[in-house]
Amino acid sequence: MNILKNNKGITLLALAITVLVLIIITGAAVSVSVNILGVTKFENVETALLLIQSKCKILAEKKAIGEIEEDGLYGVKQEGEGEFQGWYLLSMGDLIDMGVKGLNKLGMKESDESGSVKFYVDYALDDAEKEVDVAYIQIDGAGRERGVAIDDKEFKKLSEIKAYTGK
Question: What is the pTM of this model?
Fold first, then answer.
């Protein structure tokens, strides 16, 4: 009987410490998960941009030797002013024809032509020294154009990603 009287169970202090430790562990796990998702999206976008670049390089080379005309290039040339003036805006059909898979992982729905995600290509037709470049733009809820982020930095163009990652 005496043994049961002295056993009062878990103390409030021990319970508070246990809850605090669980909160810290959960916070760390969520932080790591968010970081992994960000890296995965970055790598998915980079892979898609590399695939698009390789397909467009072939077309740019064919155009350079006169094998195809400008209307044989993927995309619609952007006129006017802006960051992507002279670049070609790729349609969903262009991306599918190129074999770009996993568009939903990049924020694009295969039935969506509304432009929440855009891909541009600069074939560098007027500069033989310049490499074909590709850009990824995602329109956020406020209508701002965003690139893909990693390490608190945002990139729109494949050339910027390559310069940052050293690839």
Answer: 0.71
